[in-house]
Amino acid sequence: MNRLQRIVAAFTGQGNHFKNSKYVIEYAFTSGGTDYYQFNDLFNMPWKRGLEYSHSFEELQMRCDKEYLLAHSKLVNDLLSGNKIGLDEIVKIKAANDQMRQRLTWVVVPEHAYKLASIIFFDPSENPEVYDLKYNQEKIEKWKKNDDIEAFFLRQPVRLLFPFLKSLGENFPTYSRIVEKADQGHWLNLSTKFSQPIEPEDIGKP
Predict the structure, then answer these.
(1) H/E element, 182
(2) Which candidate, 148, 136, 156, places its Cα nearest to that of 32?
(3) How far is residue 193's CA from residue 191's CA, in Å, rounded to a whole number?
């Protein structure tokens, strides 16, 4: 879209690519040469995409997605299903619980924020009525390639979705790296049943 087309789209509330949609669609931003759009009202979007938004927003608030919660639940269940529950099992269950508590102190998990943004913003090739998980995973990777994390989340209108990120200011990239490492450590600990607990600062070390 050239500048004139964007002005027309913004004025009419409808991108040229979605003329047949019954929803009001607006130009949002451009990343890597691709224009992205959004519904003018988050509370009035197609039900399939809206359902994905609801699930993703819950994950953002919990700082845990369904896969993490299932892995945590399986670990605790496995530790409690043995013939004998000793000190070692209790220590590991406490460590898993401490991990869960730590996640609740995070402002946001960047990957969860990217997923939520991928639901809200769609490109001309997408069907705005539905959400294609595989395609949107590729879309997120394009965003990461074309914009660093600070440039993406602190731009208009993306930052309107995450107003709480403004308080991080210039520390947002550092915060994101710390949370990413911590999240990797949490997953490794769950997958190894805390056989050798890993701290975030140890990730990547030989």
Answers:
(1) helix 172-191
(2) 148
(3) 6
Dig out the tokens for 117 from the structure.
Answer: 């943004």
CB environment 116-129: b (16+ within 10 A), e (fewer): bbbbbbbbeebebe
The tokens describing 142, both together, are: 């394009």
User: What's the pLDDT at 206?
Assistant: 46
The Cα–Cα gap between 36 and 175 comes to: 27
Domain ranges (residues) in the chain: 1-63+120-161, 66-105+164-206
Residue 154 phi, psi dihedral angles, 5° rounding: -105, 15
pLDDT digits (tens, 9 = 90+) for 133-153: 999 999 999 999 999 998 999
Averaged confidence pLDDT in the chain: 89
Query: What pLDDT digit, counting tens, does each position of 64-98 carry?
Result: 999 999 999 999 999 999 888 999 999 999 999 99
As beta bridge partners, residue 122 has: 37
pLDDT at 2: 46
Q: Can you tell me the distance from the alpha carbon of 149 to that of 128, in angstroms, rounded to the nearest whole number? A: 25
Instruction: Write the DSSP assignment of 16-84 as a string of letters.
Output: GGGTT-SS-EEEEEEETTEEEEEES-TTSS-HHHHHHHHHHHHHHHHT--HHHHHHHHHHHHHHHSSS-
Total residues belonging to the chain: 206
